[in-house]
Design a protein that fits this description.
By secondary structure, the chain is an alpha/beta fold. Helices cover 53% and strands 14% of the residues. The strands form two sheets. Strands 1, 2, 3, 4, 5, 6 and 7 form a seven-stranded parallel β-sheet that branches. The longest helix is centred in the first third of the chain and has 28 residues, at 68-95.
């Protein structure tokens, strides 16, 4: 039995690698004889730590300044050339003897630019050529912004090969339904299972609680987010937040999820402060693997971050966390786990109130019962894929009314409220 996965496993943003590793491990645990071939949507075959931040920052800023029509034409043309040379031959060979193609997870259904739409349309084309069934799993789904992007993604969402449609949260499921995808179910992010894949032995005694502050480059927040402050304001907010936490009796460790631009910005924000601070402010070593990122986040007493998978990992390890809002995907996750109170905008007022908010989050710890419930739902969603592979479900798109996913979301929200 062979499964081909399409995701961004080798992205320098290690949160994407966490998703892939957790999904692959859980599938292999249930099906010991399974063969899994992971195909990165960008054609990467490993994590190249030598990638430079400057080129990506420049590319994103250039795209932001271009007229939408010109940007889409340029991006699609360059991507198709890249995919034809580097990806399509590899994908075609991998799919030749595959029993199932799994697309997900992560925020792949988004068309703010044509990056993912072009790649996903090619996935659909190659699966159709090889007659390989497609399962969408743990997908984050954004609102459509581009007519061309929506049309490209539609070739995947309405492919005759589609046999399963799983979105990672209720909002993503609703957006898939609005795109007329049938039988959508909620399949929570596999990264929630990181603490089971990489359990920690426990923390040693500490003089003060350690807060991990995740640093994200402003160009990422501005490119994908809405109404984000300018570069200087974001830098000032990060540094004000760190000073506020130190003054409130916390030790602070700055970290990133691994993207080169985030690592460079971490040096800028935290490095410039360390010469004037005592040993209570540190910069975490750059993580090289998803496991290292997971274990780093799990080692903190609290986490404050923009990046979704810093927050997902914190939840997995029952580390209290405050999310900094910039993309609707964070709101969907915090709502799903009943902690919307701890998702806040990033501004001066919030920075001033952060010590009090963090204290409240530490008092209202993540309930062990609720936590087990969330992880059980995540694990059960992978069982659906196993049933599909074993041929114990229908060969075409699994029939499931909207009621099932709505019930899942309601049960989880009610459980979070009660506990």
């Amino acid at each position: 039995m062979k499964v081909v996965t399409f995701n961004v496993k080798y992205s320098p943003n290690l949160g994407d690698g966490v998703i892939a590793d957790c999904l692959e491990t859980e599938l292999a645990r249930r099906l010991p004889d399974i063969r899994i071939e992971a195909l990165d949507l960008s054609g990467r075959i490993n994590r190249d730590s030598s990638a430079r931040s400057g080129s990506r920052v420049l590319a994103l800023k250039t795209l932001q300044k271009m007229p939408a029509i010109l940007r889409d034409v340029l991006v699609e043309g360059l991507l198709r050339l890249h995919m034809r040379r580097k990806c399509r031959p590899v994908w075609r060979e991998a799919l030749r003897d595959a029993d199932l193609a799994i697309v997900g997870g992560g925020q792949l259904i988004q068309d703010g630019d044509l990056n993912f739409p072009v790649k996903l349309s090619i996935v659909a084309s190659e699966c159709r050529r090889n007659n390989v069934p497609i399962a969408l799993f743990g997908l984050g789904v954004a609102e459509s912004r581009s007519r061309r992007g929506a049309a490209l993604i539609s070739s995947l969402l309405h492919s005759d090969e589609l046999v399963f449609a799983g979105a990672r949260d209720g909002e993503s499921a609703s957006r898939l339904r609005r795109r007329r995808v049938n039988g959508v179910v909620v399949t929570p992010d596999p990264g929630l299972l990181a603490s089971r894949l990489w359990p920690l032995s426990g923390r040693g005694p500490r003089k003060r609680p350690v807060v991990g502050v995740g640093i994200t480059h402003p160009v990422v927040l501005q490119h994908h987010g809405e109404r984000q402050p300018d570069d200087t304001t974001i830098r000032d907010l990060y540094q004000s937040l760190i000073r506020r936490l130190l003054a409130s009796g916390y030790d602070v460790t700055g970290f990133s999820n691994g993207a080169p631009e985030d690592r460079a910005y971490l040096d800028d924000v935290v490095g410039s402060m360390m010469s004037n601070a005592d040993e209570r402010l540190t910069r975490a070593p750059d993580c090289k693997t998803p496991r290292e990122l997971a274990e780093l986040v799990g080692s903190f007493d609290a986490v404050i971050a923009h990046r979704l998978h810093a927050c997902i990992l914190a939840y997995s390890y029952r580390v209290v966390h405050v999310g900094l809002s910039w993309d609707p995907k964070l709101a969907a996750f915090f709502a799903n786990v009943g902690r919307s109170r701890y998702l806040v905008d990033f501004n001066d007022d919030v920075v001033r109130a952060m010590p009090e908010l963090l204290a409240a989050a530490r008092v209202q710890k993540i309930s062990a019962v609720q936590h087990e419930r969330v992880l059980a739902l995540s694990s059960a969603s992978i069982d659906r894929l196993v049933l599909l592979l074993k041929g114990e479900t229908r060969p075409k798109l699994i029939e499931s009314s909207e009621t099932e996913s709505a019930l899942q979301a309601m049960q989880l929200a009610r459980f979070a409220h009660d506990h």
